[in-house]
């Protein structure tokens, strides 16, 4: 039995090692079984879940201020940017899921296979920086929400956020289904809050719908262009691509071509649905900013400002409180996926396996420590700057995730019959080029001017 297992692990096909992903034995044992002879909807709900974990990254606290500022300054015009960015994200997340399903390797493992140990180590460092940068946004967002809801000082709020890693440890022992269910509940909470907020703000529907039509003003107006760059630049999070390619393997399905084809179909449906919900939430944030603050002469660029002005502006007393509740839910959601991503890239790039509780605590503390120090020294203004530079780090890391993903999924040698079709190849490279160019502009602008896009 052991000899057969060793042989299977060493067997190669097109340069890929045929072995399981870096998901732990405990997680595999708790993975979701796919019923073989079930109907369409039963199979869909069995596969559903990973998409919700991925969608969390698209509605994290780091995106809120930019969307609110965009709506407050330019009305509904930038809704078209959110739509285009979401379509880009759907394609890239589809490629990520397909990579994991077809090869049995997540993006981190696949990159190590293709580059070697030394390059993989460098890429691991860069990816860890991006995950830390992402986690910073979640830590700060959760701390701000606790401050707004309960008056808890930012420093104390940051310390409190370290405790949620212990909750994650407990939940993961129960299986991925529990984590996915909690994430879905939090996403529904955020969605419900913003549906209420948008209705209460009474947007002009005709103007709202017109905002989804691309306008040349987005390019010709410098201020609008830079906020659009901020929206696009923060859309595809590099850690989401590593995460998705791994967690799709928590489903137990036949690993033959028919089984993989079915898994890809349902995974694409799952992620597309979840990202559509994320798109609606992001749209709602910008719509709220436009309906509540545009034309009033207020330059709302920070979350705290939006919280203070929201209830008085739209005349609904509970609006600000619900806004903060949604922010807290967003921070907690993103915390879960950020911590899972840290595990995946550590094991995928450098094959380092340490105790799960230690790995998660390390990942969390590395993000909490700089947030705590900056808040202690510079206060709330310092946390705003920290959020800004966390986005810069994410932008710099993005090409190192997107380019390998497109290369791998385009390769007939690596993917066999599941390689991207010609039109998908062209579209994927166009999207990759657009993302890279826009991120270069975004980072260059921030570095040169020394301030955010607001």
TrEMBL record:
Q: What does this protein do?
A: H(+)-stimulated, divalent metal cation uptake system.
Q: Which UniProt keywords apply?
A: Cell membrane, Ion transport, Membrane, Symport, Transmembrane, Transmembrane helix, Transport
Is the keyword Secreted assigned to this protein?
A: no
This chain's source organism reads Oceanobacillus caeni
Output this protein's name.
Answer: Divalent metal cation transporter MntH
Give one Pfam family.
Nramp
Which membrane topology term applies here? Multi-pass membrane protein
Q: In which compartments does the protein localize?
A: Cell membrane; Membrane
């Amino acid at each position: 039995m052991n000899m057969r297992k060793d042989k299977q692990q060493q067997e190669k096909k097109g340069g890929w090692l045929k072995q399981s992903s870096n998901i732990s034995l405990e997680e595999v044992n708790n993975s979701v079984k796919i019923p073989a002879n079930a109907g369409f909807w039963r199979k869909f709900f069995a596969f559903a879940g990973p998409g919700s974990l991925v969608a969390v990254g698209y509605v994290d606290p780091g995106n809120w201020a930019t969307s609110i500022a965009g709506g407050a300054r330019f009305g509904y015009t930038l809704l078209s940017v959110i739509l285009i960015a979401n379509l880009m994200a759907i394609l890239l997340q589809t490629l990520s899921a397909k990579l994991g399903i077809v090869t049995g390797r997540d993006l981190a493992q696949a990159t190590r296979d293709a580059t070697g140990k030394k390059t993989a180590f460098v890429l691991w460092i860069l990816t860890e920086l991006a995950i830390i940068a992402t986690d910073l946004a979640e830590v700060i967002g959760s701390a701000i929400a606790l401050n707004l809801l309960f008056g808890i000082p930012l420093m104390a709020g940051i310390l409190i956020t370290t405790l949620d890693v212990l909750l994650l440890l407990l939940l993961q022992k129960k299986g991925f289904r529990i984590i996915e269910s909690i994430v879905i509940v939090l996403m529904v909470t955020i969605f419900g809050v913003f549906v209420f907020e948008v209705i209460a703000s009474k947007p002009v529907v005709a103007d709202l719908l017109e905002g989804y039509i691309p306008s040349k003003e987005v390019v010709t107006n410098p201020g609008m262009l830079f906020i659009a760059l901020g929206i696009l630049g923060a859309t595809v999070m590099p850690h989401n691509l590593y995460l998705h390619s791994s967690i799709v393997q928590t489903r137990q399905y036949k690993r033959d071509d028919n089984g993989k084809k079915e898994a890809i179909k349902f995974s694409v449906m799952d992620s597309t649905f979840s990202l559509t919900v994320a798109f609606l939430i992001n749209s709602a944030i910008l719509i709220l900013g436009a309906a509540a603050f545009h034309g009033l002469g207020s330059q709302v660029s920070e979350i705290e400002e939006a919280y203070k002005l929201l209830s008085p502006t739209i005349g609904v007393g509970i609006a600000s409180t619900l806004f903060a509740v949604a922010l807290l839910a967003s921070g907690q959601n993103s915390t879960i996926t950020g911590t899972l991503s840290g595990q995946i890239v550590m094991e995928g790039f450098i094959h380092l396996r340490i105790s799960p509780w230690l790995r998660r605590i390390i990942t969390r503390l590395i993000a909490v420590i700089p947030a705590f120090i900056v808040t202690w020294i510079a206060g709330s203004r310092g946390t705003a700057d920290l959020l800004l530079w966390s986005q810069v780090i994410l932008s710099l890391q993005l090409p190192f995730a997107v380019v390998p993903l497109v290369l791998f999924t385009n390769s007939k040698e690596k993917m066999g019959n599941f390689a991207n079709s010609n039109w998908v190849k062209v579209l994927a490279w166009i999207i990759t080029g657009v993302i890279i160019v826009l991120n270069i502009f975004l980072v260059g602008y921030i570095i040169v001017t020394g301030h955010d896009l607001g």
